[in-house]
Amino acid sequence: MPKYTAGSGHRPTLAKLTELTEQTRTKLTHTGQKLNTTRQKLPKKHQLGVAGVAGLGAAALAFSLVPGGGSQPSTTESVSASSVAFSSEQVEDVKGGVEKQLNDALTQATSAAKKAAEDAKKKAEQERKAKEAASRSAQRAQVKPVAAKSYGNNLDGWIRESLDVMKKNGIPGSYDGIKRNILRESSGNPNAINNWDINAINGIPSKGLLQVIPPTFQTYHVPGTSSNIYDPVANITAACNYAADRYGSMDNVNSAY
Question: Where does the Transglycosylase SLT domain lie (predicted)?
Fold first, then answer.
């Protein structure tokens, strides 16, 4: 429709203007609903900004639909086609401007909602990782490594290590009982060997700290210890295992056995 100018004879009818206005209101309502839905997902500061844009658009539409005289008609009868002092092009311009403002606001609101969701997701992921790290630290603090027990490479260390092995295998015996028999049998020499008694004559001489013959060592050898009869711990544990079977404990042995 051509724009109205004085003397041109072209004035838009009131019905046409009303139709354009209703179309604009319908689009504004639809856009406003979408904007409101998006606004509800945003933080409060973004909600206020979007609401302000929507209010501005509505105000612009209402102001632009006032006739050129600057005031609303006082009666229904005074509103006629001849009294309308603006054109449909003006209405379309206002309509387009308001819709652009609302669409821009909707785009901004949607972007803000997407960014807020991404920020929330990142924050949740950071919190999850922090909790997992704290949990791992707590577990590491609870599980303290146990230092391996060490023993001296001497008679005292050999006896103590043998007692720990014997305890794990249910073999009785005491520190004093073992030491007493070692001093009598070998004087504490792990490489001692008897080459003169009946066992030596029979070709199976007694060997080691507790003077064990090879067949006895093999029969009463304790798993986990050395298979070498001269090994101090292996010799002590095998001899104590034999004494426990024959005498109840090495503590009950007071002479050659």
Answer: 183-254
User: Would you give the DSSP letter of residue 252?
Assistant: G
Q: What is the pTM of this model?
A: 0.47
Structure tokens at 46: 């973004």
141-193 residue pLDDT tens:
666 667 788 999 999 999 999 999 999 999 999 999 999 999 999 999 999 99
Q: Which long-range contacts (C-beta less than 8 Å, at least 24 apart) are formed by 112-115? A: 112/42, 112/46, 113/38, 113/41, 113/42
Please tell me the chain's helix, strand, coil percentages from 3-state DSSP, rounded to the nearest 5.
65, 0, 35
Residues 221 and 241: their CA atoms lie apart, in Å, by: 8
* Rounded CA separation 117/23 (Å): 34
CB 98 within 8 A of CB 35: no
Q: How confident is the model at residue 89 (pLDDT cuts 50, 70, 90)?
A: low
Q: Tens of pLDDT along 94-142?
A: 557 766 777 777 787 788 888 888 888 888 888 888 888 888 877 776 6
Own/partner pairs, 88-93, CB within 8 angstroms, 24+ separation: 88/1, 88/12, 88/16, 88/17, 88/20, 89/1, 89/3, 90/3, 90/64, 91/17, 91/20, 91/21, 91/24, 91/64, 91/65, 92/20
For the chain, the straight-line distance linking the first and the last C-alpha, in angstroms and rounded, comes to: 130
